[in-house]
Amino acid sequence: MAEVEQGRKQSEEFTDESEEEDSEEEPKLKYERLSNGVTEILQKDAASCMTVHDKFLALGTHFGKVFLLDIQGNVTQKFEISSVKINQISLDESGEHVGICSEDGKVQVFGLYTREGFHENFDCPIKVVALHPQFTRSNYKQFVTGGNKLLLYERNWLNRWKMSVLHEGEGSITNIQWRANLIAWANNVGVKIYDIGTKQRITNVLRDNVSLRPDMYPCSLCWKNNSTLIVGWGTSIKICVVKERNATEMRDLPSRYVEIVSAFETEFFISGLAPLADQLVTLYFVKENSDQMDEEFRARPRLDIIQPLPETCEEISSDALTVRNFQENECRDYRLEHSEGESLFYIISPKDIVVAKERDQDDHIDWLLEKKKYEEALMAAEISFKNIKRHDVQKIGMAYINHLVEKGDYDGAARKCQKVLGKNMDLWENEVYRFKTIGQLKAISQYLPRGDLRLRPAIYEMILHEFLKTDYEGFATLIREWPGELYNNMAIVQTVSDHLKRDPTNRTLLTTLAELYTYDQRYDRALEIYLRLRHKDVYQLIHKHNLFSSIEDKIVLLMDFDKEKAVDMLLDNEDKLSTDRVVEELADRPELLHVYLHKLFKRDHHKGQKYHERQIGLYAEYDRPNLLPFLRDSTHCPLEKALEICQQRNFVEETVFLLSRMGNCRRALQMIMEELEDVDKAIEFAKEQDDAELWEDLISYSIDKPPFITGLLNNIGTHVDPILLIHRIKEGMEIPNLRDSLVKILHDYNLQILLREGCKKILVADSLSLLQKMHRTQTRGVRVDEENICESCHAAILPSDMAKPFSVMVFHCRHMFHKECLPSSGSIPGVQFCNICSAKKRRPGHGILEIKQ
C-alpha cells in the first residue's frame, strides 16, 4: 500500500482543498505547476502571453522578452524583442515560424531557424498578430496584425511585403484567431469572421454586455474545428458554426454564413476557452465583490468543464486554482492556452503557469485508493493493466487484502487471495502465516491452491492440525475436499488415531480416518470402519476399489445395513461373488436369504433354479403375497413339494393353483366353492379352464345356494346356455336379485343379436365395396402400344404394318397375347385364361379385351 501511494502526485495544491476532501465525485483534471526555467523567469519578470505548440512553448513577458521552452519548462532559446510588454506570440502549424508583437508597436515575423522575415515598427501599440496556419508552406507568407486596424500582410511575386486593410473604425482589436481560410477577430463592437479564400466578411457577432470595458474584460476566441468558433466575452458564451450557403440564396450575399447553435450566460467572467471533445474547458475570473463566496476564495480563478446546451450549460467539474499572487490579478491577466494533440491546458497568470491535463487511469486508481474503494481500484487496474504505469495490479490487490484484514473481514480477504496472489507461492505462504498469526487459518483454508500449483505439505498439515484442535466437522470437510497428495497422509492418520484414543466413538473422526485409509490404499481398514459405522459410502468403496474378495465373510453385515443396496451389489457382481457363495453365507439368516433369492428370481427365472424348492418354504414363511406369483412364474419348483407346504399351511389360493396346474381341476373348484365360498372366483376358474364338466359341477353345487345362483346368472351367459341353469332351479326358491339377473341375461342376448346384425351389415357393405372396386378395375381400359410384347412369342404385340388385320387378347392381369398364340379354350367353353397366371395357380385372369382389325 505504501508503494502504491508513494507514486501519486499532489495536484490538489492548486485546487480548493476543503472542496476536494469533501467531494465524493472524482475530479476530471489534474494540475501541476510549470517549473524549471519558468520559475526563474517569473521571479524576475512577469508572463504577458504564451503560445502552445505540440513540440514546445513560446512565453512572452512584460519586459519584452520571448522564451522558447520545452514541455517541462526548460529554456531552449531566448529573444530580446523589446523593452516593453509582449502582447501576442503566434506560431504556424509546423512550428518553424513565429510572429511577435509588443506594446511599443513592434511586429516581427521570422523563422526560428533563420532571422530573415518581417520587421516593422508601428506608431501605435499592436495588440495581436496571427500567422497563416500554413505560413511555412505557403508561397504568400500571409499574416495579420491588430491594433487600431486589422492589417493583412503577404509577400508578392517580387518578394516584397504587400499590406491590405481588412477592417478599421471600430476601436482596438484585442484578439485574432486564424483557422484554415477563416480569420476571426474581436474589437470593441463585436466579433467578425473573414474568409481569406473568397475575400469576404461573413458575419458580425455583437458584444452582449457593452458596459464592460473591452480592455479589462477582453474577448476569448477559440476554434474547435475548421468551421466552429467559440466566443467568450464577459459572462456570455456563444458557439458559432460556419456553414455553406445554398447557391439559390447567394445573390450578392457571402458564400458562407454563421449559425449560433448555442448561447448561454455563465456565473463568472470568462478569461479563456478551450475545447475538450464535445465539452468546453472554461477559465473564469471571480470578482472580489461576489457575495456568494467567502473573502478568501473570491479572487481564485476557476477552471470548469461544462457541457454546452442550446440555451444553457451543464457543469461537469469545477476546480478553484490557487495561483501565485491571484489576489492582485485582473480578468485580462489570465489566459488559457491548449495543446490539441495531448489535451493539455495551460493557465497563464503574470507570476505563475499551471498545466491542467486529463486524468489517466493511474490518476483514477490513485483517487479510488484515496477513497478506500479498493475493489473498484483493483478492477480498474485489471482492465487497464497494459496502460497503467505507476501501479501494479498485485500491489493494489495486496493493499485491498490488508484493508479487509484491518476491517475484520477475514473471509473476504481470504477470498481475494485466490485472485490476487495467483501463482506466487511465496506470497501465498506469507499470507497463510499472517492468517495463522491473527488466528484466522480457518478463513483461508478453503481458498488455498490445490491443483497443479501447490504449497509445501507443511502448510496444509498446519491447517489440518488447527482444525483438528477445534473443529472436527471442518477437519472432515477439508479431508474430503483436499487431494490426499497435498499433505503427509501417514502423519495425519497418526494424529487422528491419537484423538480417537481420547474419544473412540466419535463418528466424524472415524469416518475421516476411513477416508484417510482409502487415500492410503488401506481399503480393508477403511471397510471395517465403514461397516462398523454402517456408513452409506461402504458400497461405493467396494465398487470403486473392487473389494469383493474382502466382503465374502461380511455379506450378513452388509445385508443388515441395507438389504436393497447389498443385494443389488451382489447380483451386479455375480462374476466376483457367486450365488452359491452368497447362499452359503446367508444360510443361517433365512430372512436375508429370501430377499437375495427373491431378487435373483425377479432378474432371471432360471438362474437360481436349484434353489426354487428351497424358496417355496422361504416365501411361505416370510413373503406369502409373492408365493403365488412365484409358483406361476417358476418352471423348476416341484409341484408336489409346493402342494404339501401349501396344504400344511392351509394356503387355499396357492393350493387351488397347484391342483389346477397338476390337472386336478375338479378338486380345485371344490376348494374354491367349499373353503373360499367365492362364486366369482369359481366362475373365473371355470372360464379359465373352459371345461363343460367343471361348469356342470359348478351348477350342481350352486343349485341349492341362491347367492351362487345369482352369481351364475350374472356371469355364465357368454359361456353356457342360461336355460340349462334356469330349468334346474326349484320352484318357489327365493333368489336374490333374480329379476335383475334375468334382465341382464336378456340384455346380453339382445347385445349378441345386435353384434351379429352389425357384423353382417359390415360384411355386406365391405363385399359390395370390393365388388364395385373389382368392377371398376375390370372395366378400365388398358393401353396397348408398340412397346408391349406377346407373352408367348415375345414379338411386338402390334404389327409393324397396321393396315394388315390382327387380333390381340389382353387379360385383367395385364398380360397380352396374339390370339393365334393362345391355346384353345379349357374346360369351360367360351372362357379363355391367361397361361402365365394359370401356371402360377393365380386364378384366373380371363380375357377382358379382344382387339381386332
Task: Record the SSE blueprint.
Layout (H helix, E strand, L loop, with lengths): L1 H5 L10 H6 L6 E5 L3 H8 L2 E6 L4 E5 L3 E5 L5 E6 L5 E6 L5 E6 L3 E6 L2 E8 L6 E4 L11 E4 L2 E7 L5 E8 L6 E5 L2 E5 L3 E6 L4 E7 L13 E6 L2 E6 L2 E9 L11 E10 L3 E8 L2 E7 L16 E7 L4 E8 L14 E5 L4 E6 L2 E7 L2 H10 L3 H10 L9 H15 L2 H11 L4 H13 L3 H5 L11 H14 L1 H10 L7 H14 L4 H13 L3 H11 L4 H8 L9 H7 L1 H10 L6 H7 L4 H14 L8 H11 L4 H7 L5 H10 L3 H10 L3 H12 L2 H11 L2 H11 L3 H10 L6 H6 L10 H42 L27 E5 L4 E3 L16 H5 L7 E6 L1
Antiparallel strand pairs: 1-28, 2-3, 3-4, 4-5, 6-7, 7-8, 8-9, 10-11, 11-12, 12-13, 14-15, 15-16, 16-17, 18-19, 19-20, 20-21, 22-23, 23-24, 24-25, 26-27, 27-28, 29-30, 29-31
Helix pairs in contact: 4-5, 5-6, 6-7, 10-11, 11-13, 12-13, 13-14, 14-15, 16-17, 17-19, 19-20, 20-22, 21-23, 22-23, 23-24, 24-25, 24-26
Identify the notable features of this structure and list them briefly.
853 residues; 4-stranded antiparallel β-sheet; 23% strand; disordered N terminus
Describe this protein's structure.
- The structure is a single chain.
- This protein has 853 residues and is of the alpha+beta class.
- It has 30 helices and 31 strands.
- The strands form eight sheets. A four-stranded antiparallel β-sheet has the order 1-28-27-26, covered by helices on one side. Strands 2-3-4-5 form a four-stranded antiparallel β-sheet, covered by helices on one side. The chain has a four-stranded antiparallel β-sheet with strand order 6-7-8-9, with no helix packed on it.
- A hairpin with a 5-residue loop joins strand 12 (149-155) and strand 13 (161-168).
- The chain is elongated, with a radius of gyration of 57 Å.
- The N and C termini lie far apart (119 Å).
